[in-house]
Amino acid sequence: MNLPVPAGVDTAGYRLGPPQRAGALTMVPVFGPSYPGIAPPRSGLKLSRVVTYGQVELTNPSASGVAVVPLHVGYIQDAAQNHALCRSAFIAAGQTLRFDDACCVQESQGGYLSERDQWFFILPVELRAAALGLRGTNQYSKLWGDIARFNGRYGLPARGHLEQVLTRRRAVLTQYQSRLELLDGQLGALFFVGDTLAGVEIAPDPVYFAEVWMALVCFAYGPAAWFASAAVAAAAGPGAACEAGSLDDIRAALHRRRQSVADEVSEWLSRAAWQPDSVVEDERYLDLRLSTVSGPAAAGQVVTDGSRLVYASLFATAL
Questions:
Q1: In a domain, 300, yes or no
Q2: Which domain holds residue 222?
Q3: Could you report the per-residue pLDDT of 172-184, keeping only the tens digit for each?
Q4: pTM for the structure as a whole
């Protein structure tokens, strides 16, 4: 299986591991070369202040290393309104960057934050195309209509409050973190919801990916998988009982099952039409380039050094 990234991006040294499945969510681990000098998103990046609705400040407190802000990162916190970002960005060591085009995803009151008050998520995949299209638009309520439709899809009140899923369904969504295993050395993943490629997430190194893992598997792709799994379970009805055989029989059956899943996922990936229409450079930091990817089936942002892949967050524009 090949890594579905824009043409011209060098993926030499990357490889895909065996697929893992939890209900409707399939994760294919990605391994590859680490890129040094990037601050990880939890320990090396802090939401320092909510200035006002739609304006937030992030700080890279590291003594060295540039921070690559995860695309569509959002923060849940006490004493300040919850926000998500529409874009990625570079933040140099010791610097603070204000985002004027953030999305307010819940009304509250602004203020300064302490570390214990906040945790971060990545916007659910169903909202990411809309959020990316709204980057540069300075209007704090700009995503509320999409959030209302997202909530309605899950049988919740149709209003612009993302916490109805992220916090009130958090116990259900965080089960994906334990049902899918983050492997040693893993620095990325392909995510499928049902038989559809939903996301390609590549980090600069395994530390970065480990810190964004929960935000991705539980909150970016978990809601769509939870909804799809519930729909499949309701249609299928009670499952059939299986008969236990010898240990060798069980091992052989497990091997056949793993090979079947690998073949199935390979076929899904081969028919994923993810070639973008355009890749447009947005920002530079020394040799690093941040670019926005757009196309009829997938969009997102990538960071490259020359042609070398450093970071990618790509997602299906429709599920």
A1: yes
A2: 15-230+247-316
A3: 898 999 899 999 9
A4: 0.89
